[in-house]
Every structure is written in C-alpha cells, then in structure tokens.
Design goal:
three-stranded mixed β-sheet; mainly alpha; 203 residues; 6% strand; 64% helix
Length: 203
C-alpha cells in the first residue's frame, strides 16, 4: 500500500458530498489510527479525517473501507445549520450576545452567551450519543452497498475493524459505545440474534 494510491482509493470511495466537504490528512504522529476532529460551525468547509497511515496499513482492505466510510458518515452527519430548537437557541444566544456587547451590557452578554453555550454543548453531546454513533455505522453500510459490498459483508468488516483498531492502538477493552455498536453490527451481520434495544440505541 502506497500513501498516494490509498488516498486516491479513499477519495474514490467517498460519495460526492464527502468529496465536497471532507479532507483526508496524513498524520503519522497521532496515536489513533483514525482521528476525526469535531467540526466547528465557523469552519464548515474544512472537515478533516486524519489518518496514521503507518497504523492504517495493518488493517485489511475491507476494514479500512468500512472504517473510513463510517468516519465520513459521522462527520457528514453533523449539521450545524438545520432548523431545530437547539440551533435556534444557539443562534439567538450568539446574536443576543453581539447586540448586548455593542450596547455595553455585561449582564446581557453573560446571559445570551450562556444560553448559546448550553445549546452548543447539547448539540455536541448529541453527536457523541449512542444513537449518532450507530446511525453513522448504518449509514456507512448503506454507502458501501454502492461500492460493491453486501450488507452482511460490510457489517462484518466494520465489526472486525472496530476490534482491530482497539488491538493496534493497545486498548485491551472496547468502551461502552463501541460495545453497543459491535452488538448492533453483530445483529446486522446475522452473527447474533440479540438486537440492541431501542432505549439503548437512543441513549
């Protein structure tokens, strides 16, 4: 595997929306195989997927494909500017803080800024929830179907990829969200009859 050929392959793997918004960055210094920084709204056009290609090469092709598509799906799933109450509060709070700042009202700035910070924190937590993580897995599998995979094969590859990443990164156990994700993938891959309860998926 050469760096240039792998980056070319991953870019070809992306759907059109991914090519528009996501950038593949090589970073051999990071301890994680894949690192996807949380995208901030003022840099909406710059969404990076950072890869340690030295560690990346230890994964199989199918593991790499599904892990990459999964990271891309999570990244593209973060939408700062969609109509809901959290983003409305964040926008109103930010606008209010600017107005109060221009008027020299310190209390008003604190209140408006506080509302904005609370809403932004809720948005951040929403993207880190079990629901968002599972949704990203399932979205990656759907994209992979258009790249020649079948659902069971893709779910197995992603499941094996999660376990391989933990091993290569020196982690002896999976974290709580990873355990939920792997159980959901086992159900999709027909490796387990036990599905993840909806109450856990939505936590």
């Amino acid at each position: 595997m050469t760096l240039d050929s792998e980056i070319y392959h991953l870019r070809e793997l992306m759907p059109a929306s991914g090519r528009m918004f996501a950038k593949i960055v090589s970073n051999s210094q990071q301890s994680k195989i894949l690192d996807v920084p949380f995208p901030v709204p003022w840099k909406a056009e710059s969404r990076e997927i950072r890869i340690n290609f030295d560690l990346w090469s230890q994964l199989t092709r199918t593991e790499r494909d599904l892990l990459f598509l999964r990271s891309l799906s999570w990244l593209l799933g973060i939408r700062w500017f969609k109509p809901d109450w959290q983003r409305g509060v964040a926008l109103a709070g930010t606008a209010g803080a600017v107005v109060e700042l221009l008027q020299g009202d310190a209390i008003g700035v604190l209140v408006a800024g506080g509302l904005s910070a609370i809403a932004l924190r809720q948005i951040w937590q929403e993207t880190r929830s079990s629901r968002a993580e599972i949704k990203a897995d399932e979205a990656a599998i759907k994209v992979s179907l258009r790249r020649g995979y079948n659902e069971i094969e893709a779910a197995k590859a992603l499941l094996e990829g999660i376990e391989s990443v933990a091993r290569i990164e020196g982690r002896s156990t999976l974290n709580f969200v990873e355990l939920i994700r792997t159980q959901n993938l086992k159900a999709i891959a027909k490796l387990s009859p036990v599905a993840v309860p909806e109450s856990v998926k939505n936590s």
